[in-house]
Amino acid sequence: TQLLEQSPQFLSIQEGENLTVYCNSSSVFSSLQWYRQEPGEGPVLLVTVVTGGEVKKLKRLTFQFGDARKDSSLHITAAQPGDTGLYLCAETDSWGKLQFGAGTQVVVTP
Amino acid sequence: EAQVTQNPRYLITVTGKKLTVTCSQNMNHEYMSWYRQDPGLGLRQIYYSMNVEVTDKGDVPEGYKVSRKEKRNFPLILESPSPNQTSLYFCASSTSGKIRGWAYEQYFGPGTRLTVT
């Protein structure tokens, strides 16, 4: 089973600052998903990246998939308190087995 | 409204008393899955089902059973719960992963917080 490593584990920033979180593996991802989870709720899918070098934007969130498909990053521009949450990356193998990283807890204070 | 529902949302039980957590989705998804979430360990997959009558073990299947008799329902059964099964449980469903790079994009339910004493 592939091990997904997320960093940092915790990130606290002020409103308006930028932040980047990372998801890495020693093996090649077939595809990678990013989710955000708020306290007391289930994770919500943000994006899926499939192609090496792919960049996707979702408002102030930018997702990158490494050229070698072994790493991914999530960058948030001008963070807002509503961006607070646990950010999770996840990967599925071709048999449908899904694995999550441990997550990065992001706190954005006003 | 497209959704995944779980019941109950909260459950406190005693060791050894069989329980079932129900999960239902109204999106006609083929794929369904159960996860547990524990502090420091993240989300771990218990069982998943690619379609009706097809189930497979995830990373932590011990102590759990599942069945998939209908497309919309995927109950999680704890035959003899133990305190180490105290956790937050999530059910999720997904369309077929064959669309984009075997990505099974999960839609999660609201969670069931289980305490076994």
Summarize the structure.
In chain A, 0% of the residues lie in helices and 53% in strands.
Task: Write out key terms for the chains shown.
heterodimer, A: 110 residues, mainly beta, 6-stranded mixed β-sheet, 5-stranded antiparallel β-sheet, B: 117 residues, 7-stranded mixed β-sheet, 4-stranded antiparallel β-sheet, 11 strands, 0% helix, globular
Count the strands of chain A?
11
Structural class of chain B: mainly beta
Tell me the structural class of chain A.
mainly beta
In N-to-C order, the SSE pattern of chain B is: EEEEEEEEEEE
- Extended strand count of chain B: 11
Mean pLDDT of chain A: 92
What is the element layout, followed by pairings?
The complex is a heterodimer of chains A (about 110) and B (about 120).
Chain A: E1 5-7, E2 10-14, E3 19-24, E4 32-37, E5 44-49, E6 55-58, E7 61-65, E8 71-76, E9 85-92, E10 98-100, E11 104-109
Parallel strand pairs in A: 2-11
Antiparallel strand pairs in A: 1-3, 3-8, 4-5, 4-9, 6-7, 7-8, 9-10, 9-11
Chain B: E1 4-7, E2 10-13, E3 19-25, E4 31-38, E5 42-51, E6 54-57, E7 65-66, E8 76-78, E9 87-94, E10 107-108, E11 112-116
Parallel strand pairs in B: 2-11
Antiparallel strand pairs in B: 1-3, 3-8, 4-5, 4-9, 5-6, 7-8, 9-10, 9-11
Describe the structure.
The complex is a heterodimer of chains A (110) and B (117). By secondary structure, chain A is an all-beta fold. Chain A has no helices and 11 strands. In chain A, the strands form 2 sheets. In chain A, strands 2, 4, 5, 9, 10 and 11 form a 6-stranded mixed sheet that branches. In chain A, strands 1-3-8-7-6 form a 5-stranded antiparallel sheet, with no helix packed on it. The radius of gyration of chain B is 14 Å and the shape is globular. Chain B contains no helices and 11 strands. Chains A and B meet through strand 4, strand 5, strand 9 and strand 10 of A and strand 4, strand 5 and strand 10 of B.
